[in-house]
Amino acid sequence: MPEPRGRLITIEGLDGSGKTTLADGLEAALLERGLPVLRLREPGGVELSERIRALVADPALDVHPHTEALLFAAARAQLCAELLVPALREGRWVLLDRFVDSSLAYQGGGRGLGLEAVARVNELATLGCRPDRTLLLRVSRSAGRRRLDARGGGQDRMEREDDAFFARVESSYDALATGEPERFRTLDAHKDASAVLADALDAMADILQEPVTK
Ligand code: TYD
Questions:
Q1: Number of folded domains in the chain?
Q2: Which CATH number belongs to the domain containing residue 174 in this structure?
Q3: Using H for helix, E for strand and C for coil, what is the string for the chain?
Q4: Ligand 1 nearest atom to the CA of residue 110, by list position
Q5: Residue 171: which domain range?
Q6: Which residue, judged by its Cα, is nearest atom 5 of ligand 1?
Q7: Whose CA is nearest to atom 20 of ligand 1?
Q8: Which of 75, 148, 159, 213 could form a disulfide with 155 if both were Cys (CB 3.0 to 4.6 A apart)?
Q9: What tens digit of pLDDT does each residue of 10-62 get?
Q10: What is the pTM (predicted TM-score) of this model?
């Protein structure tokens, strides 16, 4: 009997781009198709990584960019080892809100550490896990900002960065998407939620049709 093979679908984009709303819609759509979905977010998903999430979000902390990159990678390492890799081995479809591309864009681009250094740090963290598809939600900084403001709840440490920081994050994301067109699909996140979901399902049509064994 061929073994089941899980799929790793990651969702990326600026803060306020609607990743959570898309993940909600995709989770329902995949469950409707009878697929064994596991929904996760980064940083987080397991206890240790959720604690790191609280650390990196805390506006009271002064975090050096190198420390920041290592903290996100540490959260990722624990998530991959404890939950993600076992889930993929069991044949689950993992919907993951942010993954290595967030570190490449925010720490590599935004903080200026460079893509190569951040990629190297993350090699250890991911245990070779690579997304089957990455959905990049593209939204203007001003529209993203408006959504975050509407959500309320105050700004976390990352959200306090200035427009120049987010412009670097955005252009790093664009460069990553251009560099790996097989894996990335860029979606216009200014559309309403149902249109973004329809675009996302279109962008996954090929992998939804593949056999679920290896
Ligand atoms: P996210 O969960 O998308 O924030 P929220 O749910 O509050 O909208 O991500 C948390 C923040 O961490 C976000 O500003 C992006 C940042 N981040 C990085 O800078 N590097 C990373 O590797 C990850 C996973 C997130």
A1: 1
A2: 3.40.50.300
A3: CCCECCEEEEEEECCCCCHHHHHHHHHHHHHHCCCCEEEEECCCCCHHHHHHHHHHHCCCCCCCHHHHHHHHHHHHHHHHHHHHHHHHHCCCEEEEECCHHHHHHHHHHHCCCCHHHHHHHHHHHHCCCCCCEEEEEECCHHHHHHHHHHHCCCCCCHHHCCHHHHHHHHHHHHHHHHHCCCCEEEEECCCCHHHHHHHHHHHCHHHHHCCCEC
A4: 19
A5: 7-205
A6: 15
A7: 103
A8: 159
A9: 999 999 999 999 999 999 999 999 999 999 999 999 999 999 999 999 999 99
A10: 0.95
